[in-house]
Write a structure and sequence with these properties.
Blueprint lengths: L6 E7 L6 H7 L5 E6 L6 H6 L4 E5 L5 H10 L5 E4 L4 E2 L2 H10 L7 E10 L2 E3 L8 E7 L3 E3 L8 E3 L3 E11 L4 H21 L6 H18 L6 H27 L3
Parallel strand pairs: 1-2, 1-4, 2-3, 6-11
Antiparallel strand pairs: 4-8, 5-11, 6-7, 6-8, 9-10
């Protein structure tokens, strides 16, 4: 027997004033939208609060897992959808979500993301099988403690939705590399807390391996110059991770 299910949508933001109105509109199928903002310096919060079904919380950013778990804790309903503002939720995906939750067979659902970079759909580079949980029951799911590249842990049966999700991660090159540098700093902090120490191997071999693994073994070469740039930035972010780790041990900011 089908039943009407209330849905909470959640998102975390930082300086997304250009995207927030469109994002709220695409999530209009949800009964509420919870936004946790990391004290944006632009008009993100002001724009978000103009929408009737949006509740905004401002919280200092410490790491992605904590920020997302805080957002989940503020949701009113058990069924939650979580999307980033650079992910395009199509009407077809929204319809599949609402119809699936009328009679759910799992406690969490994966969605396949189509990655776009510099205006091009990236079909290889290790991103061809990018499945992420974007629909879940909050009673059975929680983000793990990773500071970056956090994973939603689901205690129960999971399933996959058919519709895909376009992921437009690229705004401009400086913004994209800045995001990678932020991830590198958080990863370095994780390694530091685990008492891992950088060696010459980490500075020389690990970035070299990352580039060739992504560009050749994971077929980034088939993505053309965009695949090369992605592999290069990825390799440099590995190098930056261990530089940041070395700086932590040296007590240098």
């Amino acid at each position: 027997m089908e039943q009407t299910v209330k849905i909470s949508a959640i998102a975390i933001t930082l300086n997304e004033a250009d995207n927030v109105d469109g994002f709220v509109q695409r999530l209009s199928f949800a009964d509420e939208l919870i936004i946790v903002d990391s004290f944006s310096s632009d008009a993100t919060v002001e724009k978000a609060r103009k929408h009737e079904n949006v509740t905004v919380y401002e919280r200092k950013f410490d790491n992605f897992s904590a920020q997302k778990n805080f957002a989940i804790s503020k949701a009113t309903h058990d069924w939650v959808v979580f999307f980033d503002l650079d992910e395009e939720v199509t009407p077809q995906l929204a319809e599949e979500i609402t119809s699936t939750l009328k009679n759910p067979s799992a406690i969490a659902y994966f969605v396949k993301r189509d990655f776009y970079f510099m205006g091009k759909r990236i079909k290889y580079s290790g991103l061809q099988n990018d499945w992420v949980i974007r629909v879940f029951n909050r009673k059975h799911c929680k983000y793990n403690d990773n500071l970056v590249h956090e994973t939603l842990e689901a205690d129960g049966t999971t399933a996959k939705l058919k519709q895909t999700l376009s992921h437009h991660t690229y705004k401009n090159f400086d913004e994209y590399t800045g995001k990678m540098h932020k991830y590198s700093a958080l990863q370095a902090k994780m390694l530091y807390e685990k008492k891992k120490k950088p060696t010459l191997y980490h500075f020389l071999f690990r970035p070299y391996y990352r580039f060739w693994h992504q560009f050749i073994l994971r077929l980034g070469i088939l993505d053309g110059k965009e695949g090369f740039i992605l592999a290069y930035v990825s390799a440099f972010s590995v190098f930056k991770r261990y530089v940041n780790l070395w700086l932590l041990y040296r007590k240098i900011d």
